[in-house]
Design a protein that fits this description.
Elements (H helix, E strand, L loop, with lengths): L2 H5 L19 H6 L3 H10 L2 E4 L7 E4 L2 H8 L5 E2 L11 H5 L12 H9 L5 H20 L6 E3 H18 L7 H11 L10 H23 L7 H6 L2 H4 L3 H32 L1 H9 L4 H12 L4 E6 L3 E3 L2 E3 L4 E5 H4 L35 H18 L6 E2 L4 E2 L8 E3 L1 E3 L3
Parallel strand pairs: 2-8
Antiparallel strand pairs: 1-2, 3-5, 4-12, 5-8, 6-7, 9-12, 10-11
Bound molecules: protoporphyrin IX containing FE.
Protoporphyrin IX containing FE binds next to helix 13 and helix 17.
Length: about 425
């Protein structure tokens, strides 16, 4: 039975409510993992769907692959600009209200993106690979055996945090601050992470003060190979306002943190849900290269990106008005049977595994996509080296994050047998 069908129980029947009342933005659906049948109904009956009373205000849901691609490639019509609302369903980028290039339109977006991109050039990734491999190795060698532990805490968070600290050349002993700031930046009050927007802003300001100190040290030193130094010494970014500096920093922290972290966890969970695929992988580790993009499709760690229409336009036969909020549900497009064969199955040797929406598309397509893929590849190469004959077993249900933006995990109990 498909995952979607499994979730369609009485209390969670998307056909029990009128189509117009469906609001897929409710974070509880993501936490309780009851989202699939709602997206399935929207894809079938109303792929460009108007929700007048959404939890975050009125908005359009775009749920099919081809319509999402149309929005992504029409940046002259659909804006990412913070001033108009930004890139999350919650106005102002989860109420962060800071300028960052993911939430800018050309030409400024293009200039700032160009400045940051070299950090993830193929040459730089090659330089980073041995450092990441060594760190993954240490984390895995330190894991307990014959004992249930939280994979999210011990592996996914620790690894991505170490990675970020490397990219920023961030003080090693303080690296967990990066994890905290990333969680805070995308959190909604009530999620268990923050209690109020005031608390959120206070912690974000603390992050800003810390990084300003690092910036001041590096702007007066020789240019280095870390992101802060690159920003401080670039013509396009050197003269940023403090808000812009902080916004772009948070973009890189969140971009490189939640996404990779939740894909590391999601991959292990998927392999446990599809044990035949785990077996196939152990028999043929060369499949890691096609499994990695499949993990990223399957997990879709960022469930959506939002745009705001700058002019009246037509999408999927619906008239979108200037000023309307348009949400591209990558999580749904990645399960669109018209674009992806057997989309509700996790298949590690798909013919075209990179055909997915998890990295977005068009001018904002993820800058760090090759870095994210590389981290996942190394994690699985090192896991299979250590445990070639046995699976790492999931021992219970994962606890999922209360968010319709970051689709991820708070915990996943696992065990490694001796
Ligand atoms: C943009 C996903 C890893 C940095 C994005 C977007 C998505 C995304 C969906 C927006 C695309 C759009 O609007 O069309 C992911 C996923 C990752 C990942 C699924 C890992 C599995 C990373 C990493 C970094 C990073 C490791 C950091 C180095 C960025 C930046 C942008 C971005 C800076 C803004 C690009 C722009 O606006 O031009 N990412 N990301 N991401 N990502 Fe990633």
């Amino acid at each position: 039975m498909s995952e979607a069908a499994l979730k369609r129980d009485g209390a969670n029947d998307p056909y029990a409510i009128p189509l117009a009342d469906i609001d897929v933005s409710d974070p509880a659906r993501f936490r309780d993992f009851t989202l699939w049948p709602y997206f399935e109904r929207l894809r079938k009956e109303d792929p460009v769907h108007w929700c007048a009373n959404g939890m975050f205000g009125p908005y359009w849901s775009v749920t099919k692959y081809k319509d999402i691609m149309q929005v992504e490639t029409s940046h002259n019509i659909f804006s990412s600009d913070t001033e108009l609302g930004g890139i999350t369903i919650e106005d102002g980028n989860a109420k962060l209200g800071l300028p960052m290039f993911i939430a800018m339109d050309p030409p400024k977006h293009d200039e700032q993106r160009k400045t940051v991109s070299p950090i993830v050039s193929p040459e730089n990734l090659a330089k980073l690979e041995s450092t990441i491999r060594a760190r993954v190795g240490m984390i895995l060698d330190d894991l307990p055996v014959n004992e249930t532990f939280n994979w999210v805490e011990r592996v996914s968070i620790e690894l991505t945090t170490q990675m970020l600290a490397t990219l920023f050349d961030f003080p090693w002993e303080d690296r967990r601050k990066l994890t905290r700031w990333s969680d805070v930046a995308t959190a909604t009050p009530g999620s268990g992470i923050i209690d109020s927007y005031e608390q959120k802003m206070a912690e974000v300001m603390e992050c800003g003060a810390y990084f300003t100190r690092l910036w001041n040290e590096r702007v007066n030193a020789e240019p280095g190979n870390d992101l802060i130094s690159m920003m401080a010494h670039s013509d396009a970014m050197r003269h940023m306002s403090p808000e812009e500096f902080l916004g772009n920093l948070l973009l890189l922290i969140v971009g490189g943190n939640d996404t990779t972290r939740n894909s590391i966890t999601g991959g292990l969970l998927a392999l446990n849900e599809f044990p035949d695929q785990y077996r196939k992988l152990r028999e043929n580790p060369a499949l890691i290269s096609s499994m990695v993009p499949e993990i990223i499709r399957w997990q879709t760690p960022l469930a959506h990106m939002r745009r705001t229409a700058k002019m009246d336009t037509v999408l999927g036969g619906k008239t979108i008005r200037a000023g309307d909020k348009v949400v591209m549900w990558y999580v749904s497009g990645n399960r669109d049977e018209e674009a992806i064969e057997r989309p509700n199955e996790f298949i590690i040797d798909r013919a075209r595994p990179r055909q997915h929406l998890s990295f977005g598309f068009g001018i904002h397509r993820c800058v760090g996509n090759r870095l994210g893929e590389m981290q996942l590849r190394i994690v699985w190469e090192e896991i299979l080296k250590r445990w070639p004959d046995q699976p790492i077993e999931v021992m219970g249900e994962p606890k999922r994050v209360y968010s319709c933006f970051v689709k991820g995990y708070e915990s996943l109990p696992v065990r490694i047998r001796a």
